[in-house]
Amino acid sequence: MKKITDAIQKVKNVWPFSTRIDFVDFLDRASINKSATGIYIITEGQDVLYVGKGHIAARHERHLQKIQGLSKVEPRGWVWLRTVRQSRPENWKMIMVFVESRSVESLLEGALIHELQPLVNDEIFGKPVK
Prior knowledge:
Elements: H1 2-14, E1 19-25, E2 37-44, E3 47-55, H2 56-67, H3 76-83, E4 92-99, H4 102-116
Antiparallel strand pairs: 1-4, 2-3, 2-4
Helix pairs in contact: 1-4
């Protein structure tokens, strides 16, 4: 997705760092390395749903539980995504971004949330649409 790669490049133009980017279907668990850490971006069509970082396989499972209504924690954005938008994970893609350090992960995650305005991130959900 061009707007995502453009947003990553925008950050790299200010703070150069190396990246590897993988694109997978959200439900393709076999393509997610169980020990991989990095930034992940969940999309549906042209919409960016969520930007996060951490152990990708574990976070993937938690987000799957949230969209299925099986999570102990019910963030407002995920409830909206499931009940109002009626989003389905079989329509989602996940972009995994691997960088050289945890500090770059944090920097890039924050910049991508700011730049991409993901629909269900707590930092964005409920804010007026631009």
